[in-house]
Amino acid sequence: MSLEASRAEPHPQEARQRLEDARDSRLAQLRSLDEGGHSADDHLLSTQKAAVERVLAEIEEALARVEDGTYGTCLGCARSVPAERLEILPYTRYCVTCRRRAA
């Protein structure tokens, strides 16, 4: 069965918990990068921090979607994002098909 074939609706409390766990993990990564003793000019460090901050913003947006009841709905096609995809990438905004189109 493909990821697109599954249509199970995510449970809001489980989704919120996965998102909060992902946020906690990313915040720990950010703290680790800040405490790494690298110079402020380090290009790799700033690139890593920017990537973690982008994911944190996506997580916050996903938490807002949980609250407003739109979590698990693809922003591209308005269909349900498969539960398996949300388990792997809980802050995703798109189903696999729409994400591939955007790439």
Please render the helix and strand layout as text.
Elements lengths: L11 H23 L8 H26 L14 H6 L7 H7 L1
Question: Care to describe what's here?
Answer:
The protein is an all-alpha fold and 103 residues long. The chain has one domain (12-102): DksA, coiled-coil domain (Four Helix Bundle (Hemerythrin (Met), subunit A), Up-down Bundle), CATH 1.20.120.910. 60% of the residues lie in helices and 0% in strands. The chain has four helices and no strands. The protein has helices at 12-34, 43-68, 83-88, 96-102. It starts with 11 loop residues before the first helix and ends with a helix.
Point out poorly predicted stretches.
1-7
CATH architecture: Up-down Bundle
- What's the total count of β strands? 0
Assess the beta-strand content as a share of residues: under 5%
Number of helices: 4
Q: H/E order of the elements?
A: HHHH
Judging from the principal axes of the Cα atoms, what is the shape? globular
How does the helix and strand content classify structurally?
Answer: mainly alpha
The fold-level CATH name is Four Helix Bundle (Hemerythrin (Met), subunit A)
Q: For the record, what CATH class applies?
A: Mainly Alpha
Query: If you average the pLDDT, what whole number results?
Result: 88
Mind summarizing the main beta sheet? none
Q: In percent, how helical is the residue content?
A: 55-70%
The tally of structural domains comes to 1
Distance between the termini: 23 Å
In CATH terms, the superfamily is DksA, coiled-coil domain
